[in-house]
Write a structure and sequence with these properties.
Elements lengths: L2 H9 L21 E10 L2 E10 L2 H5 L18 E12 L6 H7 L1 E2 L3 E5 L3 H15 L14 E4 L14 H9 L17 E2 L2 E2 L1 E11 L2 E12 L7 E2 L2 E2 L1 H8 L2 H4 L6 E8 L5 H9 L1 H7 L9 E8 L4 E2 L18 H21 L3 E2 L5 E2 L2 H4 L7
Parallel strand pairs: 5-6, 13-14
Antiparallel strand pairs: 1-2, 2-5, 3-4, 3-14, 3-15, 7-8, 9-10, 10-13, 11-12, 16-17
Helix pairs in contact: 4-5, 9-10
InterPro entries: ArgJ-like_dom_sf (IPR016117), Peptidase_S58_DmpA (IPR005321)
Pfam family, one: Peptidase_S58
Protein name: Aminopeptidase
């Protein structure tokens, strides 16, 4: 069956927009991108780590695909950097690494997601991995710019348990693969969206522009939204959801959630263009009902696997043949559609979870199985 029908059959989610999805309808449809996760689910501990590894697309195509079990082993992100840019839609967040990305336009570590209180341990994991590959980091050589993003999963997860360790980051990195689970897994295990179970979601779109075919993929850590706001594929189902959840204290509470949106593409873009792409995630986010509330950390990062930037300045750099600005609209459209789709996948794929102090987040499928008829 076609990829879009496959995803709909798997998650029950509608296909967003007119653009076709990639083979997996996931961020790993972009050549060179892999995702690894570790999920911790033990009573009051409901959390984890998700790692996105953006290896150069040329590596993925040269001599066959990289070893899917350990793609990071073939890529040293510190020495072979990936062009990237971030956009902060609402800055109520504690992510690490954004300042240097804004200044230099590259990432030099995998992109890691976890809960708010575990950022430091995941940073430690990134430092250990980078130092193992480059022993002079911090000893004569420059330091590493870790890239760790977070959302607060404290409703379901006891963040004060500090359950995530640097070893969990290493394991998630070792688990990196083109195929990965979505929903209440990895960093998304304890996340909530619209009063329902949120989590990890991903999607992709294929576009033609500038005389070539490119893929745009998105992965989200979805942890935002009030029940009354939820909109699914243009249907404002929030009022019904609010009524069925019957949690007036949560319905009246201010927005305190967040979302991290990671955009990958194999289209050759520079950091300025990638920032424009990252900004377009806001269009897809808004379609689901978000108003980027005061207490929401809405952060996007976009990167390309089309070319790399060497750590060693050994002469002039040959610029990539970039997609002209005037031909970026299909990529913008793909970004908005894939972002909305990824959020829906997180909701539709998630299972109900019982967490700390008896707190429960129910799955969308349990609360709104009839959403399409509302």
């Amino acid at each position: 069956m076609p990829p879009s029908e496959f995803r709909e059959a798997l998650f029950g989610a509608p296909h967003v927009g007119q653009l076709p999805a990639g083979a997996r309808d996931a961020i790993t449809d972009v050549p060179g991108v892999f995702v690894g996760q570790v999920t911790l689910e033990d009573g009051p501990v409901q959390t984890g780590v998700t790692v996105v590894c953006p290896t150069p697309a040329s590596t993925a195509h040269a001599g066959g695909a990289p070893d899917a079990s350990a793609p990071h082993a073939q890529w040293d992100p510190f020495r072979t950097k990936i062009p990237a840019a971030a956009a902060v839609i609402n800055g109520f967040g504690k992510s690490v690494g954004l300042m240097q990305i804004e200044e230099l336009g590259v990432i030099e570590a995998p992109l890691a997601l976890t809960n708010t209180f575990s950022v430091s341990q995941v940073v430690l994991g990134q430092l250990r991995a980078a130092i193992a590959a480059n022993p002079d980091i911090g000893r004569g050589g420059p330091s590493l710019n870790p890239t760790v993003f977070e959302c607060n999963d404290g409703y379901l997860n006891d963040m004060q348990a500090f359950a995530v360790s640097d070893a969990h980051y290493a394991q998630a990195l070792a688990n990196a693969s083109p195929v990965f689970a979505q929903g209440a897994v990895g960093a998304g295990r304890g996340m909530s969206s619209f009063g329902l179970k949120g989590g990890i979601g991903s999607a992709s779109r294929v576009v033609e522009t500038a005389g070539a075919t490119f893929t745009v993929g998105v992965l989200v850590l979805s942890n935002f939204g009030r029940p009354s706001q939820l909109t699914i594929h243009g249907r404002h189902v929030g009022p019904v959801l609010d009524e069925r959840l019957a949690q007036p204290e949560q319905s009246a509470a201010p927005e305190r959630g967040s979302i991290i949106m990671l955009v990958a593409t194999d289209a050759p873009l520079d950091a300025r263009q990638l920032r424009r792409v990252a900004t377009r995630t806001g269009a897809g986010l808004a379609r689901t009902g978000s108003v980027y509330g005061h207490g929401s950390g809405d952060v996007a990062l976009a990167f390309t696997t089309a070319y790399t930037v060497s750590h060693d300045a050994l002469g002039r750099v040959a610029p990539a043949a970039l997609v002209p600005d005037a031909l970026l609209d299909p990529i913008f459209q793909a970004t908005a559609d894939a972002t909305e789709q990824a959020i829906l996948h997180a909701l539709f794929a998630a299972e109900s979870v019982l967490g700390r102090d008896g707190h429960v987040r129910r799955a969308l499928a349990d609360v709104l199985p009839d959403w399409a008829t509302l």
